[in-house]
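Quick check before the chapter quiz. The format below is the same one you will see on the exam, so make sure you can read both the input and the output lines.
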Amino acid sequence: MLVTLEGVDGSGKTTCWRALQESAVVPQGTTFTREPTDSWYGDAVRDSIADDNADPLAELFLYTADHAAHITNTVTPALDRGDLVVSDRYSDSRYAYQGATLAGRFERPMRFVQGIHEPWTRPPDVTLYFDIDPETGAKRSGAANKFETAAYLEQVSDNYERLIEAERERFVRIDASQSRETVKATVLDAVETLL
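Here is the expected output.
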């Protein structure tokens, strides 16, 4: 099973991803992973995030290359072994974030990004969506880069809602406006129920 954690920056998903690694809720042998990855592809993505003038379409393909390598080198081998895979960000982040970045460049930008992935990506089985208003997310994240401003996160949040609307059965909504400990407990309960 592939479980992904998604949400705007500052929603607490990475904190909960780490909490899952330390919990007894998930079985031994679970593969914990994330995007961008720790590979040179992921390094290229992080370089583009730091570059306010990076071309959005070129950025999309950097993210896509990182995702392709992630599936080939980590996700598919782990699933083939029978591991549970828990990923902090995955393809939905690309759809939501790059869909927002490419707004104005394509008529249906999120659909464009999905179309690039559709022939080869491995969709998640379950996605925990950390729901928080973009203003709070921007404050929590410190708005440290171009993807963390409240205005941008508003577009990203709208894209996530479109994704949820299209696949309601896959998403589990987590109220990320609660305290850190409450959110962690909610996530641990949700994962225990799923398993």
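If your answer matched, good. The chain has one domain: 2-194.
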